[in-house]
Amino acid sequence: MRCLLDDEVKAMNTVYTKISDTRTSVKVVGSNGQISLGKEFAGRQVLVEEREPGVWLIRTATVIPDDELWLHGSRTGEDLQRALAWAQSNPPTESDVDATLEKLERGRKQKARRRSA
Q1: Rounded CA separation 63/2 (Å)
Q2: Assuming Cys at both sites, which of 49, 72, 101, 109 could form a disulfide with 57, CB separation 3.0 to 4.6 Å?
């Protein structure tokens, strides 16, 4: 599994300008060992790096399973953009499902005859 920082995900998809805004706040670690980062981060995944004992760096992240990582490559994005452009310029039309299935069956039978010959 690969963990991509939100900055890496944004960089893969768009060029953007990041404005640094440092804020410091005091949080209390509860008896169960948890802290609340606030509702704005509810449901988000974060990376917690322990830099040294008692010093943590917490960053939002997007976790992508290894078997889905290929979907986020530049080639895949290009292919997807071409497919979307094609779909927009080629709207769906009515089709005769039975005729299509018959055509596929004829093709399958022709292949089978060629193999056996």
Answers
A1: 6
A2: 49
Using CA of residue 62, residue 66, residue 70, residue 73, what is the dihedral sign?
A: positive
0.85 surpassed by pTM: no
Contact 3, 66 (CB under 8 A): no
> Six-digit token pair at 15?
């060029």
The torsion angles phi and psi of 81, rounded to 5 degrees, stand at -65, -40
| Virtual torsion, Cα 103, 109, 115, 117, nearest 10 deg | -120
Contact 11, 4 (CB under 8 A): no
Contact by Cβ (8 Å): 64, 72: yes
pLDDT value of residue 8: 62
Distance CA 67, CA 116 (A): 39
